[in-house]
Design a protein that fits this description.
This protein has about 80 residues and is mainly α. The protein folds into two domains: about 1-20 and about 65-80; about 25-60, no CATH class. The protein has helices at about 1-20, 25-40, 40-45, 50-60, 65-80. Helix 1 runs antiparallel to helix 5 (about 65-80) and helix 2 packs across helix 4 (about 50-60). The model has no long low-confidence stretch (mean pLDDT about 90).
Length: about 80
Amino acid sequence: MFWLRVLAAAQIALLVRRHLTKLERDERARLAALVAKSKGRPRRNLSANEREEMLRLVNKLEPGRLGRDAFGAARRGWRKR
């Protein structure tokens, strides 16, 4: 059971990597800078333009598909028990 969790975590890490490569290097750096600047409070610590830019970059990562793929990978691990 331990190795199934390790395998599921590795599959999810690879999925995240695949989605992160949808951004160019400068876009990844900009997204990281915006996340750091927001300090978890984008409405308070980012301007409207910065929030819009962050949303555009996050949408480019296809978060819905990432979530579905990650859930599928985890569920396959659960089924093998």
